[in-house]
Amino acid sequence: MKLTGVPTFLLLVTYLTDRCRGSRLTCAARSKRHQLLDLCSHLKLQHDVGARTEKRSGDQVRVCRNMTTKPHLEKEPQTFQHVPDRKVMVFSAYYETRRKADGPAIRIIACSWQAAYNTIGDLFCHMWYDSYDYAISVGPAIYNVVHPGRFPNSWCSHFIICRLPRGIHGVPYAVSVGPRRCATPKTMLMVLNRKRRVAQPNSHALCISPLYNHFQNWKMVIEVFEMHKLLGAKEITIYVHTAALHTHRTLQSYTTDKTEKVNVIDWPFPRHYQSFLNCQRAALNDCLYRMGYYHRYVTITDLDEILVPRVTETWQELMKLVAKPEIGVYMFQHMYFRRNTSTENPYLITQSSFWRTDEATPVVKVRCKSMYRADKAISINVHIPYLLMPDAVEYLMPPETAMLHHYRAEQTESFEKHPECYQFIEDRHMEKYKKRLVRAFQARKRAVNRME
């Protein structure tokens, strides 16, 4: 039954609403489930949210009387859930408070079939609140492409935006996405950042792209983690598609250590789906929202990359020099370091690979890696942002101030085809961290070996 265009029904809503307000004692006794109370509460809810249907014709809100069983979620699933009858998978959900970023809404991280070539179809959001015994249906949802794929059958990163209905206080604790209104939910996500939180002014988090192909270099994991901790990373989040047993054991040694703040996120993207590195961009955007809830700055890298200050020792000190309120992203220009493949023990890449290109390659932001002001970033790419808040600007970091150290095992195609275009110089800047890094590396290595 629609609310708009039915004056008699609106009178009934008003009348029953007044009855509810005038008989608080009866309405407060929810456990009795009186028929009048049930009708009052449902119609009052629809009356409150009815204005939203008029303001946004695409956002229609309904009470799902058939969905009264509340979901019980003790922890987030960390798996890709298929939306029935749609080539869409959902992974995680976050509370979006920024009005200039489609808020207030629930932002869902999703991977979907290439929408540029294929019809996705309408999606509807179903939300569960602590104060209501039924689900609220909102939709059709907004479908935002994070990155378009190159091929018709590729799976790409997307946001599904579920706008919050007006007239309902609080934030839903769970959300489901389906192809129809009030259909039995086949997906279920926790809303991970429900409570309002203010990130610390100069706090930094590190996000590392998914490990894949049964990643084996567990010593490299230790070195990169410990090096970033020396640089100022207060929390590290890494995504794992597939990794070797000893790599898993290394990660477990961090997650079970109460003195560490390391998160390992399972990223079980289906291997038989065509995508760019297992829908990598969805993982990076997930981490932006996951870590941006706690930290002012979120840095995105691959495991063989380090964003290194050149005029200070830490990221915190660097930000004191360059940070400005309007900057939404700090882009570190790319320097390729020839990785030393020695088998010496301990094998520390940063302390044995000292030859790099003499200038940024290329001397633009294309191959940068970025440090984001989390509250000013909306969607991000592997190297640079896709979309910042309207009042935010980009900042290209001068190499003499800070640069991206890329310890790549194999040269890129451009180096192989045109070696005459590149000059290499010796750069021992990372030796300043050597003593502390070796000490931390050896301590963690012993901890890992004790787990065997």
From TrEMBL:
Major localization class: membrane
EC primary class: transferase
Keywords noted in UniProt: Glycosyltransferase, Membrane, Signal, Transferase, Transmembrane, Transmembrane helix
CC annotations in GO: cytoplasm; membrane
Localization, UniProt: Membrane
Leader sequence segment: 1-22
Molecular-function GO terms, alphabetical: glycosyltransferase activity
Pfam families registered for this protein in UniProt: Glyco_transf_92
Domain of life: Eukaryota
Membrane-topology annotation of the record: Single-pass membrane protein
Family indicated by similarity: Belongs to the glycosyltransferase 92 family.
Name of the protein described by the UniProt record: Glycosyltransferase family 92 protein
Species this chain originates from: Ridgeia piscesae (Tubeworm)
